[in-house]
Amino acid sequence: MPDTPHLLAFIGAGLLLNLTPGPDVFFIISQAMRQGARAGAVAALGITAGCCVHIVAAAVGVSALVAASAAAFAVLKWVGAAYLVYVGLTMLFARTPSPATGLVQGGGRVDDGPSAPLWQVFRRGFLTNALNPKVALFFLAFVPQFIAPGTEHPSQVFLLLGLLFNFNALWVNFGWAFGAAWLARRAGAMRRAMHWLERGAGAIFIGFGLRLALADSPAEPASR
C-alpha cells in the first residue's frame, strides 16, 4: 500500500473527483427527488456495485484489454451510450405529477405517481455505471499513479485502492441522495419546477450518452 502521505492524497483526490457531477450523480439526484432519500440511497448502492465490476476487471487486466482493443471498446461504448440515452428518455417522458396529489411524506417522497421498485432503481444504477467503459479507463489511469514502482503484488494493491475509492464514493453519493431528498421535502410548492428539473436531468443523460457514443477508442489515434 502507499505510505500515509500518498494514501491521504489518494483519498483527497478521490473525494474531489466524486463531488464532480456526472451521470451517476444526476441519476442519484433524480431518484432522490422523485422517490425520496431511500430510492436515492439505493441508486447509490447500485452505482457502487457497478463500479466494483470495473475495479475487479481492471485489477485482473480485463479493462486493459478493453483499452487496447478498439472493437471491445466500441461494443461497450455503444451499449453504454444506448443505455444512457434510454435512461434520459425515461426521465424526459416521466409522468407529470398532479398538483392536486403528491403531498410530501415523512420519508421524503415528493410524487404520489407510480414509482419504480427499489430493485429496479438498484439495477438501473448498476447498469448506468457498469456499462460505461470510461469508468474502467478512469481506474486504469488514476489508481496506478498511487502504486509505487516495484510494489509486490500490484494487482492486489490496485484492487484495495479501487475498493477504498469506491467505499469513499459511496458516502459522497449518499450525501447527494439525502441532500436532494432534503431539498425536495422543502419544495412542495415547487413540484412542477422539480418536474422540469427531472426533464433537465434526462436531457443531460442523453447528452452524456451522445458524448460517449462519439468518444474515440484509446486504442486508436485521436482524430485530427
Structural overview:
InterPro entries: LeuE-type. The protein is mainly α. Helix content is 71%, strand content 0%. It has one domain (24-213). It has 9 helices and no strands. Residues 96-113 have low confidence and may be disordered.
Brief write-up:
By secondary structure, the protein is an all-alpha fold. It is built from nine helices and no strands.
Summarize the topology.
Layout: H1 4-18, H2 23-35, H3 37-59, H4 62-68, H5 70-92, H6 118-130, H7 133-142, H8 154-185, H9 191-213
Helix pairs in contact: 1-8, 2-3, 2-6, 2-8, 2-9, 3-6, 3-7, 3-8, 4-5, 4-7, 5-6, 5-9
Order of helices and strands: HHHHHHHHH
The largest pleated sheet is described as: none
Number of helical regions: 9
Distance between the termini: 40 Å
Helix content: over 70%
Q: Structural class of the secondary elements?
A: mainly alpha
Rg (CA only): 19 Å
- Provide the residue-averaged pLDDT: 75
Salient structural properties:
224 residues, mainly alpha, 9 helices
